[in-house]
Amino acid sequence: MSTPKNSKKTGAARERLAEAREAEARRAAVRRRLTTAGAVVAVLALAGVTVAVVNSTRTTAEPVTTATALVVPANATGPDSTVVTYGRADAPHTLKVYEDFRCPVCEKLETSAGKAIQQLADEGTYKIEFHLAAFLDVNLGGKGSKTALAAAGAALNEGPDKFKAFHDVLYANQPDERKDGFGDVNTILDLAGKVPGLKTDAFVKAVREGTYLPWAAKVAKAFDASGVRGTPTVLLDDKPLNVFPNNQLITGDAFTALVRQSVGTP
Question: Which CATH number fits domain 53-263: 3.40.30.10, 3.40.50.11440, 3.20.20.100, 3.90.550.10?
Answer without folding.
Answer: 3.40.30.10
